Amino acid sequence: MYMIPALEEYTEYNITVCINDSTCAFSIVTTNQAAPSAAPEEIKLKEKSSTSITIMWSPVPCDHHNGNITGYVVMLKKLDNGVSRSLTTRGSTMEYMIPGLEPSTEYEIQVAAFTIAAGPFTNDSLLASTLADTREGGSDVGGVVAGVIVSVLFLIGATLCIIAAIWLMRRKKSTLKGLFSMGHFKVTHKRRTSPHSRDIQDISLDQLSTGESLAGGELSSEKDELKRRR
């Protein structure tokens, strides 16, 4: 048994063992994985809001992987009080949104890759601040927009109701006018000097305008007779 020292991490070797230079045996061996020996490069800010910051970075150089990189660790430090926390992302993605941040707050951000263990963090930290919360001080933009929309809809509804009411009034007026122009009305006429009353007659609007009845102008004659008696 022999230990071969000073080999590289996660590297394949072809090992041959010979006895008296005549009988040989060989084997292909890969050393174990280790933590990456370099950090991700070029960490950048992609976008931010009042409660989140999205970052992106370049991969670790291939000769420093020392195994299969399975994810990244994001180290977040709040500058006003020095409180730190770490977040882990799995897979080969090189972009991450950090949620749950405070508005108008500055943070220091670093990233490290990991295989079976985490490697070093980026030397150049990213300093980024979240945006101000627009809801502070009562300036809720969403609420203002919603209020404007409700007001506009109310005005539109009121205008439609007024238009509908005017239309119904005009239609009712035209309907009554049509009834007067086509209908008949019953008129009861009773003579005071006569013991009997005249029968009810149907008189049209045209007959009323000319003073005639269905009996051939009897209403006019009766009116003249009453004048003579007085």
From TrEMBL:
Transmembrane regions: 144-168
Originating species: Geodia barretti
Annotated ranges, domain Fibronectin type-III: 39-133
Record carries keyword Repeat: yes
Region of interest: Disordered: 190-230
Superkingdom of this protein's organism: Eukaryota
Keyword field: Disulfide bond, Glycoprotein, Membrane, Receptor, Repeat, Signal, Transmembrane, Transmembrane helix
Gene3D superfamilies: Immunoglobulins (2.60.40.10)
Annotated PANTHER family: CYTOKINE RECEPTOR, FIBRONECTIN TYPE-III DOMAIN-CONTAINING PROTEIN
Residue stretches of biased makeup (Basic and acidic residues): 220-230
A GO MF label: cytokine binding
The protein, known as: Neogenin
Keyword Membrane: yes
A single GO cellular-component term on record: receptor complex
Pfam assignment, any one: fn3
